[in-house]
Amino acid sequence: MTNLNQLPVDLPVPQDDGATNHLVGMRLPDILLAATKGGSVNVAEVKGRLVIYCYPMTGQPNVPLPDGWDQIPGARGCTPQSCAFRDHYQELQLLGAEVLGLSVQTTEYQQEMADRLHLPFPILSDVNYQFQRALNLPTFVAAGMTLLKRVTLIADDGVIRAVHYPIFPSDSDAPWVINYLRAN
């Protein structure tokens, strides 16, 4: 059975294809996204510093990952990424940042993961690809599903100031964000 908390050692490394070069300086879209903590969040209205980590999809215990998942550069590692943000959440807050996760899975699907991993921050559902389309975020297709490539946005008062892409390994994302926040 697949251990979702551990990354295989032979994963292919994603390459920077330039798909996020347009994001710095853009405003976050003025849209409501359902959240695992209940209700909806409009990311454009979040004041202060906001970290949004976008990920393809989390696996579920006892459910096989899509065929060939580990061969797609950057696909594997959503659970370790979320756990890293959970484990560094207090430090991120002390650095003045709020954290949100985001994927195209339904809120119901995300809720299982958020509960299982004890995430202290909301996960947003972009099930209708509103956020993805508004920012032209990169995607890939696996098992017939169009999924977000792993990308993290750091915004100040709704304006994107920094982008982490590509992210590898996935659990290095939260430390990268912390280093950025300390320097900026």
- How many β-strands, per DSSP? 9
Total number of helical segments?
5
Strand order of the biggest β-sheet: 2-1-5-4-3-8-9
Q: Give the end-to-end Cα distance, rounded to a whole number of Å.
A: 42 Å
Order of helices and strands: EEEHHEHEHEEEEH
Beta-strand percent range: 15-25%
Report Rg: 15 Å
Helical content (DSSP H or I, runs of 4+): 10-25%
Explain this structure to me?
The protein is 23% helix and 23% strand. The protein has five helices and nine strands, in the order E-E-E-H-H-E-H-E-H-E-E-E-E-H. The strands form two sheets. It has a seven-stranded mixed β-sheet with strand order 2-1-5-4-3-8-9. It has a two-stranded antiparallel ribbon with strand order 6-7. The termini are far apart. The mean pLDDT is 95.
